[in-house]
Specification:
This protein is of the alpha/beta class. The chain has 10 helices and 11 strands. InterPro entries: AKR, Aldo-Keto_reductase, NAD(P)_OxRdtase_dom_sf, NADP_OxRdtase_dom.
Length: 283
């Protein structure tokens, strides 16, 4: 079966309001080991963020759980006051007791605390896109999202997204408030959320793949390197270009600690895979 694809546009309109360049930046790597504590080289991390924005990135993804808190504060130190049109997306709903420890917490009081901490850390009065990092299986989603609804009404949050959800969970959340983005694991080698991607594309909801650079199983390597050679590109650039061609609602957030790697990722936006290349990789 052929995988659906379209010609890549360079921007996506998020929530009917924000025109976003489809190659953004994910800031998670700018933390300590195990996504805990501050970036080891903070001055370099600040340079990477500033270079991303100088290079045309206008969508940066972070989370209250990255650090926790250190990543949002780093972004504020690097980029505040934020230039017009720069969208900072953050997430809430995880406890972080230590490195590599992630405990979903959907209690309304925790969510409210996360939202207020993010506003303070990012030095902003309003979060452009707030995403529920995970649905807590122990708390009804209506309860989890109640403080989010309140924050939207209070003008603290403009738009709301979800992360690592299935179609049924998206539909459940949509009964509570509008959902403008879904952030799920998806890349050339792991397409378990294909149906969710198709659902979001149909509904005009942004799909933000996390871990977008995984180029897939060993069997794909030869195919990718041949195509990369034809485009004078790296395998990572081809993996990103495939995502951009897969659906027009995909927003990419590749992360890196290196300016050279950042520039390499951004160049992927200019690679136009042929129909033949696309189908070869999609098999």
């Amino acid at each position: 079966m052929e995988t659906t694809q379209i010609s890549p546009a360079t921007t996506f309109l998020l929530g009917g309001e924000f025109n976003i360049n489809r190659v953004g930046y994910g800031a998670m790597q700018l933390t300590g080991n195990g996504v805990f504590g501050d970036a080891a080289d903070r001055p370099n991390a600040i340079k990477v963020l500033q270079q991303a924005v100088a290079s045309g990135v206008n969508f940066i993804d972070t989370a209250a759980a990255y650090g926790p808190g250190t990543n949002e504060r780093l972004i504020a130190d690097a980029l505040h006051p934020y230039q017009k049109g720069l969208i900072i997306a953050t997430k809430g709903g995880f406890q972080r007791p230590g490195p590599n420890q992630w405990i979903p917490d959907g209690r309304p009081e925790w969510i409210a605390k996360d939202i207020d901490a993010s506003l303070k850390n990012l030095k902003t009065d309003v979060i452009d896109l707030w995403q529920l990092h995970r649905i807590d299986p122990n708390i009804p989603v209506e309860e989890t999202l109640a403080p989010v609804v309140a924050a939207v009404k209070a003008g603290k949050i403009k738009h709301v997204g979800l992360s690592e959800v299935n179609i049924e969970q998206i539909q459940q959340a949509e009964k509570i408030l509008p959902i403008v983005s879904v952030q799920n694991l998806y890349n050339l080698g792991n397409r378990q959320w294909e149906s969710v991607l198709d659902y979001t594309a149909e509904k005009g909801i942004a799909f933000i793949p996390w871990y977008p650079l995984a180029s897939g199983p060993h069997t794909l390597e030869e195919k990718i390197s041949k195509i990369a050679g034809r485009h004078n590109a790296t395998t990572a650039q081809i993996a990103l270009a495939w995502l951009l061609k897969r659906a027009s609602n995909i927003l990419l957030i590749p992360g890196t600690k290196s300016i050279a790697h950042l520039e390499e990722n951004l160049k992927a936006g200019a690679i136009e895979l042929s129909e033949e290349d696309f189908q070869l990789l999609s098999k």
